[in-house]
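From the methods appendix. Each design record in this collection lists the tokenized structure first, followed by the designed amino acid sequence. Records were kept in a plain field format so they could be parsed without special tools. The example shown here is representative of the layout used throughout.

RECORD:
FOLD TOKENS (710 positions):
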């Protein structure tokens, strides 16, 4: 790498300071140096190294979200994301590499200062064109690579030759002096040198130097001057860009609309070319070091990515050519097609959503900025799982409401019902009801298949209380579920809420009949399938049916679903937690209290410290059932203390209320007698969140009582 001195200096500073900022001009190699320092220091941080790339963000409001994505969790709604990031890291021993700070300097300085104060065991290596001005910061200016040497080739020339060798090209040793001059004229900037070296397959070093001279003259005389320290790098990129043929330039400009890694299919759509022609162009750009190939865990295909500086330059050229909007529209339409084909449930991220998440959000921002509600509504309607999984509830709801101003009443209805779903996930229950009703009103008598889902959302809020709206919503939802294109998942959702209703009123046989039928439908989304299995297990638990519980625990269909749940939690999605709570309660009911507690402890370990509202209440309800089975009703009462008011779903509300009744010896088969009006009021009030701290403390005390740690 030719940076041994800088690496040693940076490591020395990191040993005496918790924040080291590498400063210097764009393209001087700050990022590569930071990565190399992190690699050599990794052994000292048992919780690993995290790379936080700020290059793609548009402003201060995206900084905290970028940190959350980097440490791989979905923020919960209602709490500042930066606070959640600090809570998530806590006392972990981590090294953070925070790259490209210059365009959000004030915000990132504030965030880093807060992180260093709240998280005592982290250290940070940042890169920026100027220091962050944070207390305790040690700044190290990263110089250009050396272009002079008294003993052999200078570091810059060695880098040039290394890249030539990697490309398979050859240069004559007699060209050493010319190569040194190229590096000198490029100010030793690593990126510029690599771009020059990439051309040795078609140009000799002398030809490169000649063109470089011409290009400098052109860029400083005939085009707008670039800003300050970026001038030399832009000169190098412009020079390399102008060496491309017309098709290659066109391709580079157009693929700049993609903000993250992309695949061959998306590139072909954006370029409006055949797959074969697109592949040839990508190969050509990659061979010139303008495009990098990467592998992604979520896709067997090779993916491609532009360096951010090159992408920004190419996008400027796209705008100059006047075809930015046309290219972005093709980009958006292909995203719509792919995500529409992948969509099953609005709360479930498929691999396709993960691959296209950044692209979809960028396309929505473009449509929103242009006021294009027709395209925006299509984009928003297929991107709901991204908002859900990334915890972007408020942004998602706002965009859904904006997209609902579209003229098309059917699309308006669809966007509104998806917004209602997001509001439910954010515990904004009043908004969820409002948007679901607006969706039905917008659809009027249109035969749209998602009417069933709108009615299912409304059932969530009427299942706990005897009202005429439940029966009517169920009837209308069933009718809508028979429409062409209606999802069987909507029908199974209606089954689930009808079963909840029957369980609530103590009609266990009728609930079992519905659940026995519904839970075996093929190809159900894991969320619906696990909730149906959970309700089925719950009704056997409430009925005291040991054989029914034992049969469920032996059910071969359940382990694969639980494995899928574990994978979703790894990505920060906590939607299936209610099943795990009910399952542990069932295991405890059968008398295996230790196993039940261990299972719950494993669940909590998966969730780590950041959990969505209501998760702790669900888990505490399971611990209470275990206490009841272990002959400790007083402890169960102490744990619960009205905890049911914070449950995440009707299922776990029932679990918690029944546990409290059993613990107090006041068992009534019909749970609705406990005061349904108060239940619904508490279920929909913001005080649910206020009770979370007490619930978390009780959960931790129960773990500590048995020496369990998550």
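DESIGN:
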């Amino acid at each position: 790498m030719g940076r041994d001195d800088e690496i040693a200096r940076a490591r020395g500073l990191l040993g005496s300071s918790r924040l080291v900022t590498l400063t210097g001009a764009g393209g001087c190699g700050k990022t590569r140096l930071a990565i190399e320092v992190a690699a050599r220091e990794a052994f000292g941080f048992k919780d690993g190294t995290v790379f936080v790339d700020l290059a793609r963000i548009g402003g201060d409001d995206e900084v905290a979200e970028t940190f959350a994505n980097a440490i791989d969790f979905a923020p919960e709604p209602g709490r500042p994301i930066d606070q959640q990031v600090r809570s998530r890291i806590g006392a972990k021993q981590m090294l953070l590499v925070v790259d490209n700070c210059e365009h959000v300097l004030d915000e990132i300085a504030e965030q880093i200062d807060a992180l260093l104060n709240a998280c005592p065991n982290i250290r940070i290596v940042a890169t920026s064109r100027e220091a962050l001005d944070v207390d305790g910061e040690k700044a190290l200016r990263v110089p250009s690579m050396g272009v002079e040497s008294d003993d052999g080739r200078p570091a810059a020339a060695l880098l040039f030759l290394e890249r030539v060798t990697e490309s398979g090209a050859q240069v004559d040793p007699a060209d050493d002096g010319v190569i040194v001059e190229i590096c000198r004229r490029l100010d030793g900037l690593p990126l510029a040198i690599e771009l020059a070296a990439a051309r040795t397959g078609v140009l000799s070093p002398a030809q490169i130097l000649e063109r470089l001279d011409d290009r400098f003259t052109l860029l400083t005389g005939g085009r707008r001057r670039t800003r300050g320290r970026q001038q030399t790098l832009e000169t190098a990129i412009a020079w390399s860009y102008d060496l491309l043929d017309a098709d290659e330039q066109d391709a580079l400009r157009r693929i700049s609309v993609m903000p993250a890694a992309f695949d061959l299919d998306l590139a072909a759509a954006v370029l409006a070319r055949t797959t074969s022609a697109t592949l040839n162009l990508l190969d050509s750009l990659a061979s010139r070091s303008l495009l990098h190939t990467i592998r992604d865990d979520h896709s067997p295909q090779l993916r491609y990515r532009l360096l951010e500086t090159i992408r920004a330059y190419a996008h400027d050229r796209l705008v100059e050519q006047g075809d930015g909007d046309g290219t972005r529209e093709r980009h958006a339409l292909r995203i719509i097609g792919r995500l529409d084909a992948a969509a099953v449930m609005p709360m479930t991220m498929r691999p396709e959503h993960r691959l296209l998440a950044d692209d979809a959000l960028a396309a929505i921002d473009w449509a929103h900025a242009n006021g294009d509600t027709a395209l925006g509504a299509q984009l928003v309607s297929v991107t709901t799982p991204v908002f859900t999984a990334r915890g972007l509830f408020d942004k998602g709801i706002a965009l859904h409401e904006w997209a609902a101003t579209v003229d098309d009443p059917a699309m308006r209805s669809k966007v509104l019902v998806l917004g209602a779903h997001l509001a439910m996930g954010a515990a904004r229950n009043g908004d969820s009801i409002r948007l679901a009703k607006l969706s039905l009103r917008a659809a009027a008598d249109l035969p749209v298949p998602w009417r069933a889902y709108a009615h299912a959302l409304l059932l969530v809020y009427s299942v706990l209380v005897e009202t005429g709206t439940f029966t009517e919503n169920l009837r209308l939802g069933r009718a809508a579920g028979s429409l062409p294109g209606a999802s069987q998942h909507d029908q199974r959702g209606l089954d689930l809420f009808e079963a909840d209703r029957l369980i609530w009123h103590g009609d266990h046989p009728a609930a079992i009949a519905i659940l026995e039928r519904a839970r075996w439908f093929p190809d159900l989304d894991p969320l619906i399938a696990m909730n149906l299995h959970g309700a089925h297990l719950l009704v056997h638990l409430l009925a005291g049916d040991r054989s029914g519980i034992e049969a469920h625990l032996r059910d071969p269909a359940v382990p694969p679903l639980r494995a899928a749940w574990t994978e979703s939690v790894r990505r920060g999605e906590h939607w299936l937690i209610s099943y795990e709570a009910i399952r542990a309660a069932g295991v405890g009911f059968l008398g295996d209290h230790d196993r039940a507690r261990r299972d719950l402890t494993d669940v909590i370990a998966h969730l780590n410290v950041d959990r969505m509202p209501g998760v702790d209440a669900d888990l505490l309800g399971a611990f209470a059932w275990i206490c009841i089975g272990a002959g400790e009703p007083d402890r169960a009462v102490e744990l619960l203390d009205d905890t049911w008011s914070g449950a995440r779903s009707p299922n776990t509300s029932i679990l918690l209320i029944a546990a409290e009744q059993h613990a107090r010896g006041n068992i009534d088969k019909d749970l609705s007698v406990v005061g349904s009006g108060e239940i619904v009021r508490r279920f929909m009030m913001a005080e649910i969140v206020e009770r979370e701290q007490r619930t978390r403390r009780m959960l931790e005390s129960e773990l500590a009582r048995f020496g369990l740690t998550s």
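APPENDIX NOTE: The first strand starts at residue 19 and ends at 23.
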